[in-house]
Structure formats: C-alpha cells, structure tokens
Amino acid sequence: MRLNYVQTGPAEAPVVLLGSSLGADHRMWAPQLDVLSKRFRVVAFDHRGHGESEAPDGPYTIEDLGGDVLELLDTLGAEQASYVGISLGGAVGLWLAENAPERFHRFALICPPSNPAETPQPWIDRAAQVRAEGTKAIADATLGRWFRPEFTETAPVREMLLACPTEGYAACCEALSTTNLVPALGAITAPVLLITADSDTSVPPETVVPLAAQIPGAHLEIIENAAHLVTYSHPDVINPLLLAHLA
Ligand SMILES: O=C(O)CC1=CCC(=O)O1
C-alpha cells in the first residue's frame, strides 16, 4: 500500500510518525510540524483512503491500517520510531503498540477510540451515508464535534474533509466498526501518553480515562475547554506535552 507522507526535520534525528483523524490528512499536523521538527525527523502520513494515499475499495480493517504504517517504516528505512496519533490515528497507534512493540519507542495517543466495535451500527450507517452522499453530507456535524463554537479557524479542516475520498472515508468507518483494542491493552510495554479533551463528543473522556489504568505505566492528560481535534485547536497546550513525552 502506497501511503502519502511529508517529512521535515533532520534526516538523522529519531523518527516520529503522525497519524491523522478519520476524514483528515497530514495537513492537520501543521500546528505541530515546526516545533517537533526541531528535534525529530517528523513524518506526517495519510492513512489509506485518505489525502493522497492509495484508496482501494473497502471495507478496511484496523490490521490493514496498522500494517500500512509498518510498511511505511520499512519504506523510510527506519527500524524504530515513536508514534503520535489522533482519533482514528490513535486507534491505529493502539494496534501498533499491541502488535508491533519492537518497532516503536513511545506513543502519544490523542482521543483514541479503543472499542468502537461496541456500537458498530453508527459506523456502518455513516459509511453508507458517505458512499451515497459524499463527505459533504457529514461535514457540518463532524466539525461540530471536532471544535468548540469559539474556535473559528475551521476552514482548512473542512477542506480536508471535503477532499477525502468517499470510499476511503467509508472503508475506514467500517474498520472502526470492527475494532476492539481493549483486550490487549494490558500487554502494551511502550511508554504511552494518553490525551483526552473535556468537550470531546466523538471519543468522550469517559472512554479514554479508563485506558490509563489498563495500559501499564500510561500517563493521562485531560485538556480543558477543548473538543476532539485538540491538536489543531490547542497546539500551545498539546505541543509541550508531546515534546516532553517524546524527548
Ligand atoms: O467523530 C468523528 O468523526 C471522529 C472520530 C473518528 C474516530 C472516532 O471514534 O471518532
């Protein structure tokens, strides 16, 4: 699978991969790139079916998306990396922490859905709606979950969502509908920073806070007055946390 990616920072520095939210692409990491690339070789990639990555017909699985990241590491010539993921990218991070610990130093997982398969029907319904009507049909509702009303710089994110391939978005919804990463959380060995946002209605804090007790040694941060896409709306709060954890 050919994943699209951009990289910045010194070529010889430790690699940090950035995995995006459902419907967004590598451009959503713009508020993190300058800061992280002073210390790391930063690789922001598009999941399959997103941005400019290949978009085969779905359904996909979380194993597909995680396997793509391992292939990307091989393509980059990186034996190991650290991984930062938000939302769908956070679920992929949990899968990587559980299934490929030898390839990763540290994880920062932001608003990660750990068991979306618990309620699969909304994901199956969303996939059907997007296949029928495109991502424009879900754009207003999605941005309403991703940002609090006082954050108004949402136009670039809307543009990413509208540009997301219909089949890729739908197939990733189907991946979420079959994903349950909870049973293996206790086997995670890498240091994990978990970040949740108090106003996140996509992946509510009540579903993230308990993960800190289930992942050995995990550290939890709860960001106040923030919704799901907290990396984009609150970089001044998030970037120092990422730097402190990854360094
Ligand atoms: O609500 C959304 O669209 C964002 C999201 C992606 C994965 C998830 O659980 O929520």
UniProtKB/TrEMBL annotation:
Assigned keywords, A-Z: Hydrolase
Residue span(s) of domain AB hydrolase-1: 14-140
GO cellular component term, pick one: membrane
Gene Ontology MF annotations: 3-oxoadipate enol-lactonase activity; monoacylglycerol lipase activity
Keyword match Hydrolase: yes
GO biological process: acylglycerol catabolic process; beta-ketoadipate pathway
EC number: 3.1.1.24
UniProt keyword annotation of Hydrolase present: yes
Highest rank taxon of the organism: Bacteria
Name under which the protein is recorded: 3-oxoadipate enol-lactonase
Organism: Kribbella solani
Lineage, uppermost ranks: Bacteria, Bacillati, Actinomycetota, Actinomycetes, Propionibacteriales
